[in-house]
């Protein structure tokens, strides 16, 4: 295998650990001799909760950024084309490497954060995230084209209402409830979904309610609250497929930066999935853009040990090497 092809295969393998909606991992990679192609997998789309494939695209965007992180850590220069097609025979993105150069120390750190990043649904510390760290997270999000709006105290209450209304709407949808149970709970030996080991024993009593997955997990949520947490909205200017793909890249960059600063990041996709609560988030932005995701940011509770990684599909199921 050539040096370029091996680097692309390693990048696709690193991308397997990207976050995705309910850990559906709705992506497929094709490694060609001179490029890496990313495709959407319709079979792993949440048809009831995500009929427009927004969260699928956002998830694939996170995987795309993870692949770029791996190439950066190996010192590869590359270009990324984003046709963002959901057609099964057309790629969402194409990564084409050009030349190799010495890797920057920052790129190596990002790769390390990729390997330790987790989704932690437990309560956070009672100590607030420092303003200097929040400024850094905002800057890092903008570095890859996203925007991060930090919510005021009043807007956090508005977010809590939007989250509650979104949960009520999805709880009343039989298809959405059935779909959720397909992807959540149990041991998940097939390599997708959220296992019980990644879920709290009960939903924490917080101002902004976490998603009720309708099944009890095995992790103690902790005794704290979210009073010291910071809430934010990831947003941008467009609603096209390429915009949601870029949103996923921005989320990945933000999450890796948060991990580096010992900040726990918890995404809230519910209020974006329901049209009338997505409109409520848009109003919080004051006309600055369109919401892609709500987020909780909080310092990790020092009493908590790292939660286990959620399962991943084997490389043979998501990576095809041709030529």
From TrEMBL:
<protein>
    <recommendedName>
        <fullName>Nitroreductase</fullName>
    </recommendedName>
</protein>
<dbReference type="InterPro" id="IPR050627">
    <property type="entry name" value="Nitroreductase/BluB"/>
</dbReference>
<dbReference type="InterPro" id="IPR000415">
    <property type="entry name" value="Nitroreductase-like"/>
</dbReference>
<keyword id="KW-0288">FMN</keyword>
<dbReference type="GO" id="GO:0016491">
    <property type="term" value="F:oxidoreductase activity"/>
</dbReference>
<keyword id="KW-0285">Flavoprotein</keyword>
<keyword id="KW-0560">Oxidoreductase</keyword>
